[in-house]
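> call design_seq(struct)
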């Protein structure tokens, strides 16, 4: 009887940097093949995780010499959404084994970063964030010496406007923006696979900063209409502090649940003194939680929300 073959080791994608701080943004990249610095290259751009209420969004690029397009096609890359997780892992393994002429880079955008960007005073919507992330990755390839001549992008928003925007940003490069580009161009399919593999791994190995005890990781697909996802959101909704940072709290699904299930909070406005307004309403002002006296009163019982995020009260500015 022949010995069974050893299990295939996951292709190299070191997520330690993101896992050490999963509340911001992190860039990962392969080594740049020398041939990509010497020959004209094509590059594909795609993302994974745009719609889910849980977990990060990952933008990916993949690039190779124009002369290697057929070899890339022979790797049988396809739109990651049409593949199983195991199939995506196998294809990423194939891309890794082709690293003599294939390179990739990823930008992982945490749920916290996405939500804070969308809810900041100067609105920064998901389309703008997506465009800027894609532009940043293309620029990274250029700065790394990749000789880009062709760029293919799966569109976000109107394809024609996005194509003009990228063409103006990167003159001298032929830019093609199409809906469903991940099913039309192998180099975009490859970028899609890299991005989806990264998201799958990050979600599966998510390190919760919050003390949630024995966490239930059966949260379904992460999409808002998934019953398992909705059940998980209800289970881990803190009535005062909302959701762990694994959740995109700016998504309407999360906001609706917070509005209906969480404690109502009255935020003081600029037109009325906060403490007086709270007194008039027979309710404690949010500002009082950050006062020096309040800090002294609760020095021995600081809520985990503050300690987990290393937040402290300011006595002076």
């Amino acid at each position: 009887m022949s010995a069974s073959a050893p299990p295939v080791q996951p292709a190299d994608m070191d997520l330690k940097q993101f896992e050490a701080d999963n509340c911001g943004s992190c860039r990962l990249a392969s080594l740049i093949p020398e041939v990509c610095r010497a020959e004209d290259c094509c590059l594909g751009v795609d993302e994974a995780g745009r719609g889910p209420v849980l977990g990060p969004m990952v933008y990916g690029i993949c690039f190779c010499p124009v002369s290697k397009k057929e070899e890339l096609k022979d790797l049988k890359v396809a739109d990651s959404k049409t593949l199983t997780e195991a199939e995506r892992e196998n294809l990423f393994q194939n891309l890794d084994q082709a690293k003599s002429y294939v390179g990739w880079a990823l930008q992982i955008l945490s749920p916290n970063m996405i939500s804070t960007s969308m809810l900041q005073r100067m609105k920064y919507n998901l389309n703008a964030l997506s465009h800027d992330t894609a532009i940043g990755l293309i620029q990274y390839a250029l700065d790394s010496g990749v000789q880009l001549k062709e760029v293919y992008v799966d569109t976000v928003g109107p394809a024609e406007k996005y194509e003009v925007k990228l063409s103006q940003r990167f003159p001298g490069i032929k830019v093609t923006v199409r809906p469903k580009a991940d099913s039309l161009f192998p180099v975009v399919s490859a970028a899609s696979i890299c991005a989806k593999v990264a998201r799958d791994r990050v979600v599966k190995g998510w390190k919760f900063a919050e003390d949630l005890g024995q966490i239930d990781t059966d949260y379904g697909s992460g999409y808002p209409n998934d019953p398992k996802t909705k059940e998980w959101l209800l289970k881990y909704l803190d009535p005062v502090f909302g959701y762990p940072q694994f959740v995109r709290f700016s998504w309407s699904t999360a906001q609706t649940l917070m509005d209906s299930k969480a404690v109502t909070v009255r935020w003081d406005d600029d037109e009325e003194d906060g403490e007086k307004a709270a007194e008039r309403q027979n309710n404690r002002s949010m500002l009082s939680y950050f006062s020096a006296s309040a800090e002294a009163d609760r020095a021995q019982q600081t809520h985990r929300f503050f300690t987990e995020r290393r937040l402290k009260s300011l006595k002076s500015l």
